[in-house]
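Interim report, section 4.2 (structural modelling).
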Amino acid sequence: MTIAVNSQQEAGELRRPSRPRRRFTGAALAAPFAVLLLCTVLVPIGYALWLSLFTDRLSGLGFDGYRQVFTGLANYTHVLTDPAAHTALGNIALYALIHIPVMFGGALLIALLLNSATVRLRQIWSLAVFLPYAVPGVIAGLIWGYLYSPNIGPLNEALPFDPLGSGGVLSSIVNMATWQWMGYNVIIFYTALQAVPREVLEAARADGAGAIRTALSIKIPMIRPTVFVALMFTTIGSLQLFTEPMVLRTFTGTVTSTWTPSLYIYEAAFTNNDYGRAAAASVLLALASALLSALVMRLSARRSR
Amino acid sequence: MSAPTTTTPRPPVVRSIPAQRRGGDGGSDKARRWTSRGAVHGILVLATLYSVLPLIWLVTSSTKSVGDFSATSAFEFADFHLFTNLSDLFAREDGVFWYWIRNSLLYAGLGAVLGALICTACGYAIAKLDFPGRKLLLSVTLTGVLVPPTALALPLYLLASHLHLVNTFWAVFLPMLTNPFGVYLARTFADAAVPDEVLEAARLDGAGELRIFFTIALPMMMPGFVTILLFQFVAIWNNFFLPLVMLTDPQLFPMALGIYQWSTRALQFPDYNPLVITGSLLAVVPLIVAFVVLQRQWRSGISAGSVK
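Predicted structure of the assembly:
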């Protein structure tokens, strides 16, 4: 995440050491957020790191209850060698590999169609596809859960596979997330497309490029930075997948209590009270998310060169 | 793969060479334009149906009784039962649903107003004022955007339990105030909307820095403020993981958590189904109304957040 501190120069002019009050006001205006950031993000991260090095053990003969014991990286090796964690990782990887291309493909297609001159009433189309974003994840999970359920929703009979069975549940969850987030990305891409300079498009047309050709070799490359930022946020979001599978658990036993990494953390912490292991898993999840977003940004920098 | 452009009136010069080399006369060109217009609208209709049908299902289902819910087909209207469902919803468990509505409004409404104000102040300070640790704060904030909230939930829970804050209003309210992305947005808005000359002029007139922020900069940043407010409202309204972890007292639940808890009972007690569905409708409607009314705000906000 490299965002240049711009307007450095003007800011430099403003910042004269002879203005201590300005410095004081700056600190005062920034302080509430700085305190919140410290207390609800930095301290918890540090605490998770610390916790992940300890394990609760029964002390002595077990008469004194549990005691925190320093176990170094044992929690990390536990998580990294836990078959349940591997399954969760596999599920989330497969989920992301299907969800991201499907959603981005769909969102790009719709944004390009809205951007093409043949379409009228663009506001209404884009508002319609955006609406699912306004639906809370729990509610989206419940709506689709009912729609997948036999005797209640139409999908169970209409689909060739059981959307709540072991073969179908992954695509069902992919569908729930795609439904919620596609419209949001349509708006992002559509807004970016509208900023593509007219002259460039007219030049392409003058060179004889058709609509599809213009879309593929002019429009999409020009909004590439936007697509990569969206890709980064989608990747982070995908890794955290929790609400939809959690809600589906009440509809089907196919979704296990450790189906995704976030469910794994929840189970370790609040079902097994194994805080050390849950903290280690949290740290690993945060690390994975940081690495993946760095990778996406790297990729975007290389492409745009 | 270059079909003739489907876009509307082209300047005559452009029309000449490539289109005609493929021998497209006026008639078939027009026909092709009609088919492609049909295809484009066909795809848009499908996308709209996909997005909206589940919501329509929510509306039709909230009007059904328990029996009709599983006996009638999904989109068909049965006997109109909406008002019975609503009065059941508000009567169940001594009207706990009222608490859930109040809590959601408090968590999301108060949280979004306060959170957006905190973000705007900090974004403005980073963009326009100097103070010790400014660069550090900016880089930590940008890193904070990338930290997944689910990884924070467990340590937050344990910290809150040390402070005896678990199962209180504050355990959910305070962490949700922190919005690093909002600060990033506010900084972008401050850079774009507040000219340094205006600030300098106000200073020459002898205005204090705090007064400058509240009476000059904040009004100039109002569109950004509203955007941050709207998105933070949605984020808090939709949040599930943190309340699930922090709260055990149903009277403190936000709507999403309460409805989820009822849904886990519906398998055993089918009479919870209409309550879950009607409750879901009530949880969705305010947000949809907000998004329809505030279209201009969020459209500009989404684009501002994705430019860099």
